[in-house]
Amino acid sequence: MDAGLHTAANFSAFFDGSRMRDLARAGAVRPEESDPLIANRQHHVLVVDDDMILREIISRHLTKQGYRVTLAVDGAQALVEIENTAPDLIVLDHYLPDTTGADLLAALRQHKEGFAIPVIYLTGDDTHQRFRESMNSGADDFFTKPVAIPELLQAVKAQLRKSHTRMIAQGDFPQSSSEKEIACLALQLHEVEARLKSVCADRQRIQQALQSLESGMAAWVSDEHRKLERENSALKAYGYALAHELRRPLRGIVGYAGLLKESEAGKLGNEASRMLVRIEKSGRSMNEFIEGLLAMATAEHSKFRRMRVDLSAMALEAVESCAPPDALPPTCVRIASGLATHADPVLMRIVLENLLSNAFKYTSTIALPNIEFDTCELNCESVFFVRDNGIGFNMADAVRMFEPFHRLHSTNDYEGLGIGLATVQQIIERHGGRIWARSAVGEGTTFFFTLGEAACSSQSLVT
Question: Is the pTM above the cut of 0.85?
Fold first, then answer.
Protein backbone atom coordinates (compact mmCIF):
# COMPACT_ATOMS: atom_id res chain seq x y z
CA MET A 1 0.00 0.00 0.00
CA ASP A 2 2.94 2.31 0.63
CA ALA A 3 4.04 1.74 -2.95
CA GLY A 4 0.56 2.61 -4.11
CA LEU A 5 0.51 5.83 -2.11
CA HIS A 6 3.95 6.72 -3.42
CA THR A 7 2.78 6.19 -7.01
CA ALA A 8 -0.40 8.16 -6.37
CA ALA A 9 1.70 11.02 -4.98
CA ASN A 10 3.83 10.98 -8.09
CA PHE A 11 0.68 10.95 -10.18
CA SER A 12 -0.71 13.91 -8.23
CA ALA A 13 2.52 15.80 -8.76
CA PHE A 14 2.23 15.13 -12.45
CA PHE A 15 -1.17 16.87 -12.54
CA ASP A 16 0.28 19.86 -10.72
CA GLY A 17 2.77 20.35 -13.58
CA SER A 18 2.38 22.36 -16.78
CA ARG A 19 2.43 19.24 -18.97
CA MET A 20 -1.10 18.26 -17.99
CA ARG A 21 -2.37 21.78 -18.56
CA ASP A 22 -0.83 21.68 -22.04
CA LEU A 23 -2.53 18.36 -22.73
CA ALA A 24 -5.86 19.73 -21.57
CA ARG A 25 -5.52 22.78 -23.80
CA ALA A 26 -4.70 20.45 -26.73
CA GLY A 27 -8.05 18.73 -26.27
CA ALA A 28 -7.45 15.46 -24.48
CA VAL A 29 -11.09 14.48 -24.86
CA ARG A 30 -12.50 14.40 -28.37
CA PRO A 31 -16.18 14.21 -29.37
CA GLU A 32 -18.04 11.16 -30.56
CA GLU A 33 -17.31 9.90 -34.09
CA SER A 34 -20.85 10.65 -35.14
CA ASP A 35 -20.34 14.38 -34.57
CA PRO A 36 -19.99 15.94 -38.05
CA LEU A 37 -17.29 18.39 -36.96
CA ILE A 38 -14.70 15.74 -36.05
CA ALA A 39 -15.95 12.53 -37.65
CA ASN A 40 -12.55 12.10 -39.27
CA ARG A 41 -10.62 12.10 -35.95
CA GLN A 42 -9.44 8.86 -34.35
CA HIS A 43 -10.09 8.62 -30.59
CA HIS A 44 -7.35 7.47 -28.27
CA VAL A 45 -8.13 4.94 -25.50
CA LEU A 46 -5.63 3.95 -22.77
CA VAL A 47 -6.19 0.43 -21.31
CA VAL A 48 -4.52 -0.05 -17.90
CA ASP A 49 -4.67 -3.68 -16.73
CA ASP A 50 -2.11 -6.23 -15.56
CA ASP A 51 -4.16 -9.13 -16.97
CA MET A 52 -2.43 -9.72 -20.32
CA ILE A 53 -5.25 -11.79 -21.86
CA LEU A 54 -8.03 -9.35 -20.97
CA ARG A 55 -5.86 -6.40 -21.94
CA GLU A 56 -5.23 -7.85 -25.41
CA ILE A 57 -8.88 -8.78 -25.93
CA ILE A 58 -10.08 -5.28 -25.06
CA SER A 59 -7.35 -3.75 -27.26
CA ARG A 60 -8.22 -5.91 -30.27
CA HIS A 61 -11.94 -5.08 -30.14
CA LEU A 62 -11.32 -1.37 -29.65
CA THR A 63 -8.92 -1.35 -32.60
CA LYS A 64 -11.54 -3.00 -34.79
CA GLN A 65 -13.90 -0.18 -33.90
CA GLY A 66 -11.39 2.36 -35.20
CA TYR A 67 -9.91 3.54 -31.91
CA ARG A 68 -6.21 4.13 -31.35
CA VAL A 69 -5.23 2.02 -28.32
CA THR A 70 -2.22 2.18 -25.99
CA LEU A 71 -1.59 -0.27 -23.15
CA ALA A 72 -0.20 -0.07 -19.62
CA VAL A 73 0.37 -2.89 -17.11
CA ASP A 74 0.73 -0.77 -13.94
CA GLY A 75 0.32 2.72 -12.55
CA ALA A 76 3.82 3.92 -13.45
CA GLN A 77 3.47 2.94 -17.10
CA ALA A 78 -0.02 4.47 -17.16
CA LEU A 79 1.51 7.74 -15.91
CA VAL A 80 4.02 7.73 -18.77
CA GLU A 81 1.38 6.98 -21.39
CA ILE A 82 -0.90 9.75 -20.11
CA GLU A 83 1.98 12.21 -20.22
CA ASN A 84 3.06 11.21 -23.72
CA THR A 85 -0.20 10.49 -25.53
CA ALA A 86 -3.03 12.34 -23.70
CA PRO A 87 -5.85 9.73 -24.01
CA ASP A 88 -9.47 10.59 -24.73
CA LEU A 89 -10.67 7.80 -22.38
CA ILE A 90 -9.12 5.43 -19.83
CA VAL A 91 -10.17 1.82 -19.14
CA LEU A 92 -8.73 1.28 -15.63
CA ASP A 93 -8.41 -1.95 -13.60
CA HIS A 94 -8.66 -1.78 -9.81
CA TYR A 95 -5.85 -4.14 -8.90
CA LEU A 96 -2.45 -3.07 -10.26
CA PRO A 97 1.03 -4.32 -9.27
CA ASP A 98 2.24 -0.96 -7.89
CA THR A 99 -0.96 0.81 -6.80
CA THR A 100 -4.73 0.63 -7.04
CA GLY A 101 -6.95 2.04 -9.69
CA ALA A 102 -8.84 3.92 -7.00
CA ASP A 103 -5.70 5.86 -5.92
CA LEU A 104 -4.82 6.79 -9.53
CA LEU A 105 -8.41 7.80 -10.18
CA ALA A 106 -8.62 9.89 -7.03
CA ALA A 107 -5.41 11.73 -7.95
CA LEU A 108 -6.73 12.31 -11.49
CA ARG A 109 -10.02 13.78 -10.32
CA GLN A 110 -8.41 16.15 -7.81
CA HIS A 111 -7.05 18.31 -10.58
CA LYS A 112 -8.99 20.46 -13.07
CA GLU A 113 -6.90 19.31 -16.02
CA GLY A 114 -7.74 15.62 -15.47
CA PHE A 115 -11.29 16.07 -14.30
CA ALA A 116 -12.90 15.72 -17.74
CA ILE A 117 -11.16 12.52 -18.95
CA PRO A 118 -13.74 9.69 -18.87
CA VAL A 119 -12.69 6.59 -16.86
CA ILE A 120 -14.36 3.18 -17.06
CA TYR A 121 -13.50 1.19 -13.92
CA LEU A 122 -12.88 -2.60 -14.00
CA THR A 123 -12.76 -4.86 -10.96
CA GLY A 124 -13.17 -8.49 -10.03
CA ASP A 125 -15.10 -7.52 -6.88
CA ASP A 126 -18.75 -6.98 -7.63
CA THR A 127 -19.75 -5.84 -4.14
CA HIS A 128 -21.70 -2.69 -3.55
CA GLN A 129 -18.84 -1.34 -1.47
CA ARG A 130 -16.40 -1.61 -4.40
CA PHE A 131 -18.94 0.04 -6.67
CA ARG A 132 -19.40 2.97 -4.21
CA GLU A 133 -15.63 3.36 -3.79
CA SER A 134 -15.03 3.57 -7.54
CA MET A 135 -17.82 6.03 -8.04
CA ASN A 136 -16.68 8.16 -5.12
CA SER A 137 -13.17 8.20 -6.61
CA GLY A 138 -14.61 9.65 -9.86
CA ALA A 139 -15.30 6.69 -12.18
CA ASP A 140 -17.75 7.34 -15.00
CA ASP A 141 -18.78 3.69 -15.40
CA PHE A 142 -18.22 0.39 -13.61
CA PHE A 143 -17.76 -3.16 -14.93
CA THR A 144 -17.07 -6.39 -13.07
CA LYS A 145 -14.91 -9.11 -14.53
CA PRO A 146 -15.34 -11.10 -16.69
CA VAL A 147 -16.26 -8.13 -18.91
CA ALA A 148 -18.93 -8.38 -21.65
CA ILE A 149 -17.05 -6.84 -24.57
CA PRO A 150 -20.12 -5.52 -26.50
CA GLU A 151 -21.32 -3.74 -23.36
CA LEU A 152 -17.85 -2.30 -22.77
CA LEU A 153 -17.71 -0.96 -26.37
CA GLN A 154 -21.10 0.69 -25.93
CA ALA A 155 -19.92 2.24 -22.67
CA VAL A 156 -16.78 3.63 -24.34
CA LYS A 157 -18.89 5.22 -27.07
CA ALA A 158 -21.38 6.64 -24.57
CA GLN A 159 -18.69 8.16 -22.33
CA LEU A 160 -16.95 9.83 -25.30
CA ARG A 161 -20.30 11.32 -26.37
CA LYS A 162 -20.97 12.66 -22.85
CA SER A 163 -17.49 14.15 -22.67
CA HIS A 164 -17.99 15.85 -25.99
CA THR A 165 -21.33 17.32 -24.91
CA ARG A 166 -19.90 18.55 -21.62
CA MET A 167 -16.96 20.33 -23.22
CA ILE A 168 -19.18 22.03 -25.78
CA ALA A 169 -21.45 23.26 -22.99
CA GLN A 170 -18.45 24.68 -21.10
CA GLY A 171 -17.06 26.34 -24.23
CA ASP A 172 -13.72 24.58 -23.84
CA PHE A 173 -13.96 22.42 -26.94
CA PRO A 174 -10.89 22.99 -29.15
CA GLN A 175 -11.01 23.58 -32.90
CA SER A 176 -11.54 20.30 -34.76
CA SER A 177 -9.51 19.14 -37.67
CA SER A 178 -12.54 19.70 -39.95
CA GLU A 179 -12.72 23.31 -38.81
CA LYS A 180 -9.03 23.65 -39.54
CA GLU A 181 -9.59 22.12 -42.94
CA ILE A 182 -12.47 24.54 -43.57
CA ALA A 183 -10.24 27.45 -42.64
CA CYS A 184 -7.52 26.09 -44.89
CA LEU A 185 -10.01 25.67 -47.74
CA ALA A 186 -11.26 29.21 -47.19
CA LEU A 187 -7.71 30.47 -47.50
CA GLN A 188 -7.17 28.41 -50.63
CA LEU A 189 -10.43 29.69 -52.11
CA HIS A 190 -9.31 33.23 -51.38
CA GLU A 191 -6.05 32.53 -53.19
CA VAL A 192 -7.92 30.97 -56.12
CA GLU A 193 -10.23 33.97 -56.25
CA ALA A 194 -7.24 36.28 -56.37
CA ARG A 195 -5.71 34.19 -59.18
CA LEU A 196 -9.00 34.22 -61.09
CA LYS A 197 -9.18 37.99 -60.82
CA SER A 198 -5.66 38.19 -62.13
CA VAL A 199 -6.47 35.78 -64.97
CA CYS A 200 -9.61 37.76 -65.84
CA ALA A 201 -7.62 40.98 -65.88
CA ASP A 202 -4.99 39.35 -68.13
CA ARG A 203 -7.73 37.99 -70.38
CA GLN A 204 -9.34 41.40 -70.66
CA ARG A 205 -6.01 42.95 -71.60
CA ILE A 206 -5.44 40.22 -74.19
CA GLN A 207 -8.93 40.72 -75.63
CA GLN A 208 -8.33 44.45 -75.89
CA ALA A 209 -5.01 43.83 -77.60
CA LEU A 210 -6.65 41.35 -79.99
CA GLN A 211 -9.46 43.79 -80.76
CA SER A 212 -6.92 46.49 -81.47
CA LEU A 213 -4.91 44.10 -83.64
CA GLU A 214 -8.08 42.94 -85.40
CA SER A 215 -9.12 46.53 -86.12
CA GLY A 216 -5.67 47.28 -87.48
CA MET A 217 -5.69 44.12 -89.59
CA ALA A 218 -9.18 44.89 -90.91
CA ALA A 219 -8.10 48.36 -91.93
CA TRP A 220 -4.95 46.99 -93.56
CA VAL A 221 -6.88 44.28 -95.40
CA SER A 222 -9.42 46.86 -96.56
CA ASP A 223 -6.67 49.12 -97.88
CA GLU A 224 -4.92 46.22 -99.60
CA HIS A 225 -8.23 45.04 -101.07
CA ARG A 226 -8.91 48.47 -102.52
CA LYS A 227 -5.38 48.57 -103.94
CA LEU A 228 -5.79 45.15 -105.52
CA GLU A 229 -9.16 46.11 -106.96
CA ARG A 230 -7.65 49.23 -108.52
CA GLU A 231 -4.70 47.28 -109.89
CA ASN A 232 -6.97 44.49 -111.14
CA SER A 233 -9.30 46.97 -112.81
CA ALA A 234 -6.35 48.75 -114.41
CA LEU A 235 -4.89 45.43 -115.58
CA LYS A 236 -8.20 44.30 -117.06
CA ALA A 237 -8.71 47.65 -118.73
CA TYR A 238 -5.21 47.43 -120.18
CA GLY A 239 -5.86 43.86 -121.39
CA TYR A 240 -9.15 44.88 -122.96
CA ALA A 241 -7.56 47.85 -124.71
CA LEU A 242 -4.63 45.75 -125.87
CA ALA A 243 -6.89 43.02 -127.25
CA HIS A 244 -9.08 45.61 -128.94
CA GLU A 245 -6.09 47.31 -130.55
CA LEU A 246 -4.53 44.04 -131.70
CA ARG A 247 -7.70 42.98 -133.47
CA ARG A 248 -7.32 45.51 -136.34
CA PRO A 249 -3.72 44.67 -137.45
CA LEU A 250 -4.41 40.97 -136.97
CA ARG A 251 -7.36 41.15 -139.32
CA GLY A 252 -5.07 42.86 -141.83
CA ILE A 253 -2.51 40.08 -141.55
CA VAL A 254 -5.13 37.38 -142.05
CA GLY A 255 -6.79 39.25 -144.91
CA TYR A 256 -3.60 40.01 -146.81
CA ALA A 257 -2.40 36.42 -146.34
CA GLY A 258 -5.63 35.18 -147.89
CA LEU A 259 -5.42 37.62 -150.80
CA LEU A 260 -1.81 36.71 -151.43
CA LYS A 261 -2.67 33.00 -151.42
CA GLU A 262 -5.46 33.52 -153.95
CA SER A 263 -3.67 36.01 -156.29
CA GLU A 264 -0.36 34.17 -156.40
CA ALA A 265 -1.69 30.66 -156.25
CA GLY A 266 0.01 29.54 -159.46
CA LYS A 267 3.22 31.44 -158.91
CA LEU A 268 4.20 30.37 -155.39
CA GLY A 269 6.04 27.20 -154.71
CA ASN A 270 4.73 24.49 -152.41
CA GLU A 271 6.73 25.71 -149.41
CA ALA A 272 5.53 29.29 -149.79
CA SER A 273 1.94 28.11 -150.14
CA ARG A 274 2.21 26.06 -146.95
CA MET A 275 3.63 29.10 -145.11
CA LEU A 276 0.70 31.27 -146.24
CA VAL A 277 -1.73 28.62 -145.02
CA ARG A 278 0.01 28.50 -141.64
CA ILE A 279 0.02 32.30 -141.39
CA GLU A 280 -3.68 32.45 -142.16
CA LYS A 281 -4.51 29.63 -139.70
CA SER A 282 -2.38 31.17 -136.91
CA GLY A 283 -3.95 34.55 -137.50
CA ARG A 284 -7.45 33.10 -137.27
CA SER A 285 -6.50 31.28 -134.06
CA MET A 286 -5.08 34.48 -132.59
CA ASN A 287 -8.18 36.38 -133.63
CA GLU A 288 -10.35 33.76 -131.93
CA PHE A 289 -8.30 34.14 -128.76
CA ILE A 290 -8.64 37.91 -128.80
CA GLU A 291 -12.38 37.67 -129.39
CA GLY A 292 -12.59 35.29 -126.42
CA LEU A 293 -10.74 37.73 -124.16
CA LEU A 294 -12.98 40.56 -125.29
CA ALA A 295 -16.04 38.41 -124.64
CA MET A 296 -14.79 37.63 -121.12
CA ALA A 297 -14.15 41.33 -120.46
CA THR A 298 -17.59 42.15 -121.79
CA ALA A 299 -19.16 39.51 -119.54
CA GLU A 300 -17.53 41.03 -116.47
CA HIS A 301 -17.52 44.79 -117.11
CA SER A 302 -20.19 45.64 -119.67
CA LYS A 303 -23.23 47.63 -118.60
CA PHE A 304 -25.83 45.17 -117.34
CA ARG A 305 -29.51 45.56 -118.21
CA ARG A 306 -32.40 43.13 -118.00
CA MET A 307 -35.13 43.03 -120.59
CA ARG A 308 -37.39 40.49 -122.22
CA VAL A 309 -35.28 38.10 -124.30
CA ASP A 310 -36.57 35.53 -126.78
CA LEU A 311 -34.10 32.73 -126.09
CA SER A 312 -35.58 30.44 -128.74
CA ALA A 313 -34.96 32.94 -131.54
CA MET A 314 -31.52 33.77 -130.14
CA ALA A 315 -30.57 30.08 -130.01
CA LEU A 316 -31.63 29.57 -133.66
CA GLU A 317 -29.37 32.47 -134.71
CA ALA A 318 -26.51 30.97 -132.67
CA VAL A 319 -27.02 27.60 -134.41
CA GLU A 320 -26.74 29.23 -137.84
CA SER A 321 -23.44 30.88 -136.91
CA CYS A 322 -21.96 27.87 -135.05
CA ALA A 323 -23.03 24.89 -137.15
CA PRO A 324 -20.45 23.64 -139.69
CA PRO A 325 -22.02 24.01 -143.18
CA ASP A 326 -20.59 20.74 -144.49
CA ALA A 327 -21.02 18.55 -141.43
CA LEU A 328 -21.46 14.87 -142.29
CA PRO A 329 -23.74 13.51 -141.10
CA PRO A 330 -25.83 16.65 -140.46
CA THR A 331 -26.53 17.41 -136.82
CA CYS A 332 -30.07 17.06 -135.54
CA VAL A 333 -30.83 20.23 -133.57
CA ARG A 334 -34.01 20.78 -131.53
CA ILE A 335 -34.71 24.25 -130.14
CA ALA A 336 -37.84 24.43 -128.00
CA SER A 337 -40.19 27.21 -129.06
CA GLY A 338 -41.41 29.99 -126.79
CA LEU A 339 -38.40 30.05 -124.47
CA ALA A 340 -38.17 33.57 -123.08
CA THR A 341 -36.97 35.29 -119.90
CA HIS A 342 -35.71 38.59 -118.52
CA ALA A 343 -31.96 38.89 -119.03
CA ASP A 344 -29.25 40.96 -120.67
CA PRO A 345 -29.56 40.23 -124.43
CA VAL A 346 -25.89 40.84 -125.28
CA LEU A 347 -24.60 38.58 -122.55
CA MET A 348 -27.18 35.85 -123.17
CA ARG A 349 -26.12 35.70 -126.82
CA ILE A 350 -22.56 34.98 -125.63
CA VAL A 351 -23.86 32.21 -123.34
CA LEU A 352 -25.88 30.45 -126.05
CA GLU A 353 -23.13 30.77 -128.67
CA ASN A 354 -20.55 29.21 -126.35
CA LEU A 355 -22.73 26.36 -125.14
CA LEU A 356 -24.07 25.50 -128.62
CA SER A 357 -20.65 25.78 -130.29
CA ASN A 358 -19.27 23.36 -127.66
CA ALA A 359 -22.14 20.98 -128.44
CA PHE A 360 -21.36 21.08 -132.16
CA LYS A 361 -17.64 20.61 -131.48
CA TYR A 362 -17.97 17.56 -129.24
CA THR A 363 -20.58 15.79 -131.43
CA SER A 364 -18.51 16.15 -134.61
CA THR A 365 -17.27 12.55 -134.35
CA ILE A 366 -20.63 11.01 -133.45
CA ALA A 367 -22.52 8.91 -136.04
CA LEU A 368 -25.95 10.49 -135.30
CA PRO A 369 -25.29 13.80 -133.47
CA ASN A 370 -28.14 15.42 -131.52
CA ILE A 371 -28.29 18.80 -129.81
CA GLU A 372 -31.19 20.15 -127.73
CA PHE A 373 -32.02 23.46 -126.03
CA ASP A 374 -35.03 23.44 -123.70
CA THR A 375 -36.21 24.08 -120.14
CA CYS A 376 -37.30 21.81 -117.30
CA GLU A 377 -38.33 21.89 -113.64
CA LEU A 378 -35.75 20.83 -111.04
CA ASN A 379 -36.67 21.15 -107.36
CA CYS A 380 -39.54 23.54 -108.19
CA GLU A 381 -37.16 25.76 -110.15
CA SER A 382 -37.24 26.60 -113.85
CA VAL A 383 -33.92 25.53 -115.37
CA PHE A 384 -32.61 25.95 -118.94
CA PHE A 385 -30.37 23.28 -120.42
CA VAL A 386 -28.26 22.55 -123.53
CA ARG A 387 -27.84 18.81 -124.13
CA ASP A 388 -25.75 16.84 -126.61
CA ASN A 389 -24.91 13.18 -127.19
CA GLY A 390 -21.22 13.84 -127.82
CA ILE A 391 -18.07 12.34 -126.37
CA GLY A 392 -18.77 13.64 -122.83
CA PHE A 393 -16.17 13.74 -120.07
CA ASN A 394 -15.35 12.26 -116.66
CA MET A 395 -17.15 14.16 -113.88
CA ALA A 396 -14.06 13.75 -111.70
CA ASP A 397 -12.42 16.31 -114.03
CA ALA A 398 -15.30 18.80 -113.69
CA VAL A 399 -13.89 20.55 -110.60
CA ARG A 400 -11.88 23.01 -112.73
CA MET A 401 -14.25 23.01 -115.68
CA PHE A 402 -15.11 26.72 -115.39
CA GLU A 403 -11.55 27.93 -114.78
CA PRO A 404 -10.09 30.14 -117.56
CA PHE A 405 -7.76 28.33 -119.99
CA HIS A 406 -8.55 24.93 -118.48
CA ARG A 407 -9.53 22.29 -121.03
CA LEU A 408 -11.17 18.90 -120.53
CA HIS A 409 -9.90 17.56 -123.87
CA SER A 410 -6.59 17.78 -125.71
CA THR A 411 -6.08 20.54 -128.31
CA ASN A 412 -4.81 17.88 -130.68
CA ASP A 413 -8.32 16.41 -130.78
CA TYR A 414 -10.47 19.52 -130.42
CA GLU A 415 -9.54 23.13 -131.01
CA GLY A 416 -10.32 25.75 -128.38
CA LEU A 417 -8.81 28.18 -125.88
CA GLY A 418 -10.53 27.10 -122.64
CA ILE A 419 -12.15 30.47 -121.88
CA GLY A 420 -15.67 29.90 -123.22
CA LEU A 421 -17.09 28.16 -120.14
CA ALA A 422 -15.37 30.63 -117.81
CA THR A 423 -17.08 33.46 -119.70
CA VAL A 424 -20.44 31.68 -119.51
CA GLN A 425 -20.10 31.25 -115.75
CA GLN A 426 -19.31 34.95 -115.26
CA ILE A 427 -22.43 35.92 -117.20
CA ILE A 428 -24.69 33.50 -115.32
CA GLU A 429 -23.38 34.74 -111.97
CA ARG A 430 -23.93 38.37 -113.02
CA HIS A 431 -27.57 37.42 -113.51
CA GLY A 432 -27.65 35.93 -109.99
CA GLY A 433 -27.93 32.39 -111.31
CA ARG A 434 -25.79 29.28 -111.35
CA ILE A 435 -24.53 26.78 -113.91
CA TRP A 436 -23.53 23.11 -113.61
CA ALA A 437 -23.06 20.08 -115.82
CA ARG A 438 -23.79 16.36 -115.94
CA SER A 439 -21.76 14.12 -118.18
CA ALA A 440 -20.25 10.70 -118.70
CA VAL A 441 -17.60 9.53 -121.13
CA GLY A 442 -19.27 8.48 -124.38
CA GLU A 443 -22.77 9.45 -123.17
CA GLY A 444 -22.91 13.17 -123.90
CA THR A 445 -23.09 16.31 -121.75
CA THR A 446 -25.89 18.50 -120.39
CA PHE A 447 -25.28 22.04 -119.14
CA PHE A 448 -27.97 23.42 -116.79
CA PHE A 449 -28.28 27.09 -115.85
CA THR A 450 -30.62 29.47 -114.04
CA LEU A 451 -30.83 33.24 -114.32
CA GLY A 452 -31.66 34.47 -110.80
CA GLU A 453 -34.79 35.84 -109.15
CA ALA A 454 -35.56 38.48 -111.79
CA ALA A 455 -35.77 35.78 -114.44
CA CYS A 456 -37.78 33.47 -112.18
CA SER A 457 -40.32 36.23 -111.53
CA SER A 458 -41.16 36.10 -115.23
CA GLN A 459 -41.80 32.37 -115.48
CA SER A 460 -44.89 33.08 -117.50
CA LEU A 461 -42.54 33.96 -120.34
CA VAL A 462 -40.86 30.52 -120.18
CA THR A 463 -42.88 27.79 -121.88
Answer: no
Of 81, 16, 94, 19, give the one whose Cα is nearest residue 49. Answer: 94
Q: How far apart are CA 156 and CA 29, in angstroms?
A: 12
User: At residue 241, what is the residue type?
Assistant: A
- Residue count of the chain: 463
Q: For residue 65, give the nearest of 147, 177, 156, 161 by alpha carbon.
A: 156
Is the model's pLDDT at 25 over the cut of 50?
no
78 vs 22, which has greater pLDDT?
78
